[in-house]
Amino acid sequence: MGRLEGKAAIVTGGGRGIGRGISLVLAGEGADIAILDLDLENANRTAAEIGGLGRRAIVVRTDVSDPSSAESGVAAAIEALGRVDILVNNAGVAGANVAASKLTLDDWDACYRVNLRAIWTMSSALIPHFKANGGGKIVNISSIAGRVGGVGLAHYGASKAGAISVTQSLAAELGPSNINVNAVCPGLLWTDMWRGLEAAVGGDAAPEAVEQRRFFETYLRSNCPLRREQFPEDIGHAVAFLVSEQARNITGQALNVDGGIRMN
Ligand SMILES: NC(=O)c1ccc[n+]([C@@H]2O[C@H](COP(=O)([O-])OP(=O)(O)OC[C@H]3O[C@@H](n4cnc5c(N)ncnc54)[C@H](O)[C@@H]3O)[C@@H](O)[C@H]2O)c1
Q1: Of all atoms in ligand 1, which is nearest to the CA of residue 63?
Q2: What is the CA(31)–ligand 1 centre distance, in A?
Q3: Known catalytic residue: 219?
Q4: pLDDT (tens digit, 9 = 90+) per residue, 53-81?
Q5: What tens digit of pLDDT does each residue of 151-194 get?
Q6: DSSP3 helix / strand / coil % (the chain, rounded to 5)
Protein backbone atom coordinates (compact mmCIF):
# COMPACT_ATOMS: atom_id res chain seq x y z
CA MET A 1 0.00 0.00 0.00
CA GLY A 2 1.39 3.40 -1.03
CA ARG A 3 1.73 6.38 1.28
CA LEU A 4 -0.84 8.39 -0.69
CA GLU A 5 -3.67 5.87 -1.12
CA GLY A 6 -7.01 7.69 -1.34
CA LYS A 7 -5.40 11.09 -1.96
CA ALA A 8 -5.74 13.32 -5.01
CA ALA A 9 -3.11 15.77 -6.24
CA ILE A 10 -2.91 18.66 -8.67
CA VAL A 11 0.46 18.91 -10.44
CA THR A 12 0.93 22.01 -12.57
CA GLY A 13 3.13 21.51 -15.61
CA GLY A 14 2.78 17.77 -14.96
CA GLY A 15 2.98 16.76 -18.60
CA ARG A 16 6.73 16.61 -19.03
CA GLY A 17 10.10 16.90 -17.31
CA ILE A 18 10.10 17.30 -13.55
CA GLY A 19 6.29 17.61 -13.39
CA ARG A 20 5.91 14.27 -15.18
CA GLY A 21 8.37 12.70 -12.70
CA ILE A 22 6.44 14.11 -9.74
CA SER A 23 3.10 12.94 -11.19
CA LEU A 24 4.36 9.39 -11.75
CA VAL A 25 5.93 9.08 -8.29
CA LEU A 26 2.80 10.42 -6.55
CA ALA A 27 0.62 8.05 -8.61
CA GLY A 28 2.99 5.20 -7.73
CA GLU A 29 2.31 6.04 -4.06
CA GLY A 30 -1.44 5.70 -4.71
CA ALA A 31 -2.62 9.24 -5.55
CA ASP A 32 -4.99 10.23 -8.35
CA ILE A 33 -3.58 13.11 -10.37
CA ALA A 34 -4.92 16.20 -12.11
CA ILE A 35 -2.36 17.55 -14.57
CA LEU A 36 -2.88 21.27 -15.15
CA ASP A 37 -0.75 22.20 -18.13
CA LEU A 38 -0.68 24.39 -21.23
CA ASP A 39 0.65 21.53 -23.34
CA LEU A 40 -2.12 18.99 -23.83
CA GLU A 41 -0.14 16.52 -25.92
CA ASN A 42 2.46 15.78 -23.25
CA ALA A 43 -0.13 16.01 -20.48
CA ASN A 44 -2.33 13.37 -22.14
CA ARG A 45 0.68 11.10 -22.65
CA THR A 46 1.63 11.35 -18.97
CA ALA A 47 -2.02 10.82 -17.96
CA ALA A 48 -2.03 7.57 -19.95
CA GLU A 49 1.13 6.45 -18.11
CA ILE A 50 -0.59 7.18 -14.78
CA GLY A 51 -3.58 5.12 -15.96
CA GLY A 52 -1.12 2.29 -16.58
CA LEU A 53 -0.18 2.47 -12.87
CA GLY A 54 -3.84 1.89 -12.00
CA ARG A 55 -4.53 5.45 -10.87
CA ARG A 56 -6.97 8.02 -12.20
CA ALA A 57 -5.53 10.94 -14.13
CA ILE A 58 -7.28 13.90 -15.66
CA VAL A 59 -5.90 16.71 -17.78
CA VAL A 60 -7.14 20.29 -17.60
CA ARG A 61 -5.72 22.82 -20.02
CA THR A 62 -4.64 25.63 -17.70
CA ASP A 63 -2.44 28.67 -18.00
CA VAL A 64 -1.25 29.16 -14.43
CA SER A 65 -0.05 32.67 -15.25
CA ASP A 66 -3.69 33.69 -15.81
CA PRO A 67 -5.54 33.86 -12.46
CA SER A 68 -8.95 33.04 -13.95
CA SER A 69 -7.55 30.03 -15.83
CA ALA A 70 -5.85 28.87 -12.59
CA GLU A 71 -9.13 29.21 -10.71
CA SER A 72 -11.15 27.25 -13.27
CA GLY A 73 -8.39 24.60 -13.49
CA VAL A 74 -8.63 24.05 -9.73
CA ALA A 75 -12.45 23.90 -9.85
CA ALA A 76 -12.34 21.37 -12.71
CA ALA A 77 -9.87 19.18 -10.79
CA ILE A 78 -12.03 19.17 -7.64
CA GLU A 79 -15.11 18.40 -9.69
CA ALA A 80 -13.49 15.53 -11.63
CA LEU A 81 -11.57 13.89 -8.75
CA GLY A 82 -14.12 14.59 -6.02
CA ARG A 83 -11.50 16.19 -3.76
CA VAL A 84 -7.94 17.52 -3.86
CA ASP A 85 -5.50 16.97 -0.98
CA ILE A 86 -2.19 18.03 -2.54
CA LEU A 87 -1.08 20.93 -4.74
CA VAL A 88 2.31 20.83 -6.45
CA ASN A 89 3.17 24.18 -8.05
CA ASN A 90 5.73 22.93 -10.55
CA ALA A 91 5.01 24.77 -13.84
CA GLY A 92 7.89 27.08 -14.62
CA VAL A 93 9.71 28.95 -17.34
CA ALA A 94 13.40 29.81 -17.63
CA GLY A 95 13.29 32.92 -19.82
CA ALA A 96 16.34 33.92 -21.81
CA ASN A 97 19.70 33.18 -20.24
CA VAL A 98 21.08 36.69 -20.71
CA ALA A 99 22.74 39.41 -18.68
CA ALA A 100 20.38 41.63 -16.68
CA SER A 101 21.10 44.57 -18.99
CA LYS A 102 19.84 42.56 -22.00
CA LEU A 103 16.71 41.18 -20.36
CA THR A 104 13.35 42.09 -21.87
CA LEU A 105 10.30 43.06 -19.84
CA ASP A 106 8.57 40.00 -21.32
CA ASP A 107 11.21 37.66 -19.88
CA TRP A 108 11.03 39.32 -16.51
CA ASP A 109 7.21 39.23 -16.47
CA ALA A 110 6.99 35.60 -17.64
CA CYS A 111 9.24 34.43 -14.79
CA TYR A 112 7.32 36.51 -12.28
CA ARG A 113 3.86 35.40 -13.50
CA VAL A 114 4.53 31.67 -13.95
CA ASN A 115 7.22 30.92 -11.36
CA LEU A 116 6.02 33.16 -8.53
CA ARG A 117 2.60 34.77 -8.88
CA ALA A 118 1.00 31.47 -9.93
CA ILE A 119 2.02 29.90 -6.60
CA TRP A 120 -0.15 32.47 -4.88
CA THR A 121 -3.09 32.34 -7.33
CA MET A 122 -3.17 28.51 -7.47
CA SER A 123 -2.87 28.24 -3.68
CA SER A 124 -5.52 30.90 -3.12
CA ALA A 125 -7.92 29.01 -5.37
CA LEU A 126 -7.43 25.78 -3.42
CA ILE A 127 -7.13 26.97 0.20
CA PRO A 128 -10.91 27.23 0.86
CA HIS A 129 -11.27 23.60 -0.28
CA PHE A 130 -8.34 22.51 1.93
CA LYS A 131 -9.84 24.33 4.92
CA ALA A 132 -13.25 22.75 4.33
CA ASN A 133 -11.53 19.32 4.25
CA GLY A 134 -9.55 19.89 7.45
CA GLY A 135 -6.13 20.38 5.82
CA GLY A 136 -3.93 19.93 2.78
CA LYS A 137 -0.39 19.95 1.42
CA ILE A 138 1.32 22.42 -0.90
CA VAL A 139 4.76 21.91 -2.42
CA ASN A 140 6.31 24.67 -4.52
CA ILE A 141 9.08 23.80 -6.96
CA SER A 142 11.72 26.48 -6.56
CA SER A 143 15.37 26.00 -7.63
CA ILE A 144 18.88 26.24 -6.29
CA ALA A 145 18.88 29.41 -8.43
CA GLY A 146 16.58 30.80 -5.74
CA ARG A 147 19.31 30.28 -3.12
CA VAL A 148 21.89 32.57 -4.68
CA GLY A 149 21.82 34.81 -7.75
CA GLY A 150 24.21 34.55 -10.67
CA VAL A 151 24.99 35.76 -14.18
CA GLY A 152 21.93 35.43 -16.43
CA LEU A 153 19.66 34.67 -13.48
CA ALA A 154 18.28 38.10 -12.46
CA HIS A 155 14.72 37.31 -13.55
CA TYR A 156 14.64 33.53 -12.96
CA GLY A 157 16.60 33.57 -9.69
CA ALA A 158 14.46 36.37 -8.27
CA SER A 159 11.26 34.47 -9.09
CA LYS A 160 12.64 31.31 -7.46
CA ALA A 161 13.86 33.16 -4.35
CA GLY A 162 10.35 34.61 -4.17
CA ALA A 163 8.96 31.08 -4.35
CA ILE A 164 10.88 30.18 -1.17
CA SER A 165 9.70 33.33 0.58
CA VAL A 166 6.03 32.83 -0.33
CA THR A 167 6.37 29.22 0.87
CA GLN A 168 7.42 30.49 4.30
CA SER A 169 4.67 33.12 4.47
CA LEU A 170 1.96 30.66 3.44
CA ALA A 171 3.30 28.05 5.87
CA ALA A 172 3.12 30.53 8.76
CA GLU A 173 -0.38 31.63 7.79
CA LEU A 174 -1.85 28.21 7.00
CA GLY A 175 -0.26 26.06 9.71
CA PRO A 176 -3.19 26.61 12.11
CA SER A 177 -5.47 25.24 9.36
CA ASN A 178 -3.42 22.03 9.15
CA ILE A 179 -1.99 22.98 5.75
CA ASN A 180 1.70 22.17 5.26
CA VAL A 181 3.57 24.32 2.73
CA ASN A 182 7.09 23.42 1.65
CA ALA A 183 9.41 23.98 -1.30
CA VAL A 184 11.78 21.71 -3.20
CA CYS A 185 14.81 23.24 -4.89
CA PRO A 186 16.00 21.05 -7.77
CA GLY A 187 19.63 21.26 -8.89
CA LEU A 188 20.45 20.47 -12.53
CA LEU A 189 18.18 18.25 -14.63
CA TRP A 190 18.59 17.92 -18.39
CA THR A 191 14.92 18.54 -19.22
CA ASP A 192 13.25 20.40 -22.09
CA MET A 193 13.74 23.57 -20.06
CA TRP A 194 17.47 23.34 -20.78
CA ARG A 195 16.78 22.15 -24.31
CA GLY A 196 14.54 25.21 -24.69
CA LEU A 197 17.52 27.38 -23.85
CA GLU A 198 19.40 25.51 -26.60
CA ALA A 199 16.64 26.28 -29.09
CA ALA A 200 16.91 29.92 -28.12
CA VAL A 201 20.54 29.86 -29.18
CA GLY A 202 20.01 27.98 -32.43
CA GLY A 203 18.89 24.36 -31.98
CA ASP A 204 20.52 21.10 -31.03
CA ALA A 205 23.22 21.09 -33.66
CA ALA A 206 24.38 24.63 -32.94
CA PRO A 207 27.78 25.01 -31.29
CA GLU A 208 26.06 27.02 -28.58
CA ALA A 209 23.87 23.98 -27.80
CA VAL A 210 26.88 21.71 -27.52
CA GLU A 211 28.38 24.39 -25.33
CA GLN A 212 25.25 24.37 -23.18
CA ARG A 213 25.50 20.61 -22.55
CA ARG A 214 29.22 20.98 -21.91
CA PHE A 215 28.50 23.74 -19.39
CA PHE A 216 25.90 21.49 -17.72
CA GLU A 217 28.37 18.60 -17.38
CA THR A 218 31.34 20.73 -16.38
CA TYR A 219 29.28 22.50 -13.77
CA LEU A 220 28.22 19.18 -12.26
CA ARG A 221 31.78 17.82 -12.30
CA SER A 222 33.21 20.83 -10.54
CA ASN A 223 30.36 21.98 -8.26
CA CYS A 224 28.37 18.90 -7.33
CA PRO A 225 29.79 16.77 -4.50
CA LEU A 226 27.85 13.72 -5.72
CA ARG A 227 29.18 14.33 -9.28
CA ARG A 228 25.94 13.47 -11.05
CA GLU A 229 22.91 15.18 -12.53
CA GLN A 230 19.47 14.88 -10.93
CA PHE A 231 16.44 13.22 -12.48
CA PRO A 232 12.70 14.03 -12.34
CA GLU A 233 11.96 11.05 -10.10
CA ASP A 234 14.50 12.38 -7.54
CA ILE A 235 12.33 15.48 -7.23
CA GLY A 236 9.20 13.28 -7.20
CA HIS A 237 10.47 11.27 -4.22
CA ALA A 238 11.22 14.45 -2.24
CA VAL A 239 7.71 15.76 -2.99
CA ALA A 240 6.12 12.40 -2.07
CA PHE A 241 7.84 12.53 1.32
CA LEU A 242 6.82 16.13 2.00
CA VAL A 243 3.14 15.43 1.25
CA SER A 244 3.11 12.17 3.22
CA GLU A 245 2.01 11.62 6.81
CA GLN A 246 5.68 11.09 7.77
CA ALA A 247 6.30 14.79 7.08
CA ARG A 248 3.29 16.06 9.03
CA ASN A 249 5.48 18.23 11.27
CA ILE A 250 7.54 19.73 8.46
CA THR A 251 6.38 23.09 7.09
CA GLY A 252 7.94 26.28 5.74
CA GLN A 253 11.07 24.42 4.59
CA ALA A 254 12.95 24.44 1.28
CA LEU A 255 14.72 21.16 0.50
CA ASN A 256 17.57 21.14 -2.00
CA VAL A 257 17.67 18.04 -4.22
CA ASP A 258 20.89 18.87 -6.00
CA GLY A 259 23.61 16.38 -5.14
CA GLY A 260 24.97 18.85 -2.57
CA ILE A 261 25.60 21.82 -4.91
CA ARG A 262 24.05 24.22 -2.37
CA MET A 263 24.23 23.37 1.32
CA ASN A 264 21.90 26.10 2.61
N1 LIG B 1 15.44 21.53 -15.24
C2 LIG B 1 16.14 22.02 -14.25
O3 LIG B 1 17.39 21.91 -14.21
C4 LIG B 1 15.47 22.76 -13.11
C5 LIG B 1 16.26 23.14 -12.01
C6 LIG B 1 15.67 23.80 -10.94
C7 LIG B 1 14.30 24.07 -10.96
N8 LIG B 1 13.55 23.70 -12.05
C9 LIG B 1 12.11 24.02 -11.99
O10 LIG B 1 11.35 22.82 -12.08
C11 LIG B 1 10.08 23.09 -12.73
C12 LIG B 1 9.91 22.16 -13.91
O13 LIG B 1 11.02 22.35 -14.79
P14 LIG B 1 11.31 21.40 -16.05
O15 LIG B 1 12.77 21.39 -16.23
O16 LIG B 1 10.54 20.14 -15.93
O17 LIG B 1 10.68 22.33 -17.21
P18 LIG B 1 9.98 21.95 -18.59
O19 LIG B 1 10.06 23.18 -19.43
O20 LIG B 1 10.51 20.68 -19.14
O21 LIG B 1 8.44 21.69 -18.16
C22 LIG B 1 7.64 22.74 -17.71
C23 LIG B 1 6.18 22.31 -17.77
O24 LIG B 1 5.39 23.43 -17.33
C25 LIG B 1 4.38 23.72 -18.29
N26 LIG B 1 4.08 25.16 -18.26
C27 LIG B 1 4.90 26.17 -18.58
N28 LIG B 1 4.24 27.34 -18.46
C29 LIG B 1 2.99 27.04 -18.04
C30 LIG B 1 1.84 27.81 -17.75
N31 LIG B 1 1.84 29.15 -17.88
N32 LIG B 1 0.71 27.18 -17.34
C33 LIG B 1 0.69 25.83 -17.23
N34 LIG B 1 1.73 25.04 -17.51
C35 LIG B 1 2.89 25.65 -17.92
C36 LIG B 1 4.98 23.28 -19.62
O37 LIG B 1 3.97 23.04 -20.60
C38 LIG B 1 5.72 22.00 -19.20
O39 LIG B 1 4.83 20.88 -19.19
C40 LIG B 1 10.12 24.56 -13.09
O41 LIG B 1 9.48 25.32 -12.10
C42 LIG B 1 11.61 24.87 -13.11
O43 LIG B 1 11.87 26.24 -12.93
C44 LIG B 1 14.11 23.06 -13.11
Answers
A1: 32
A2: 21
A3: no
A4: 999 999 999 999 999 999 999 999 999 99
A5: 889 999 999 999 999 999 999 999 999 999 999 999 999 998 88
A6: 55, 15, 35
Q: Are residues 132 and 108 in the same domain?
A: yes
Distance CA 126, CA 81 (A): 14
CATH number for the domain spanning 96: value is 3.40.50.720
19 lines ligand 1 (CB under 6 A): yes
The verdict on 59 and 154 lying in the same domain is yes
Domain total for the chain? 2
Question: Residue 90: left if φ>0, alpha if ψ -120 to 50, beta else—which one?
Answer: alpha
List the domain range (segments joined by +) for residue 182: 8-189+231-257
Beta strand 179-186 with 86-89 is: unpaired
Q: What would the pLDDT profile of 223-235 be if each residue is shown by its tens digit?
A: 999 999 999 999 9
Q: Concatenated DSSP letters for 42-61?
A: HHHHHHHHHHHTT--EEEEE
- Measured from the CA of 114, which atom of ligand 1 is nearest? 31
pTM above 0.70, yes or no: yes
CB distance 91 to ligand 1 below 6 Å: yes
Closest-CA residue, ligand 1 atom 38, reads 13
Closest by CA to 29, choosing from 68, 80, 77, 86, is 86
